[in-house]
Amino acid sequence: MLPMVHRLENEFWGPIDFVYLNREAPENRDVTQQFGISYQPVFVLLDENGNEVQRWFGSQTEETLRSDLTAYLATLQ
Question: Rounded to two decimals, what is the model's pTM?
Answer without folding.
Answer: 0.89
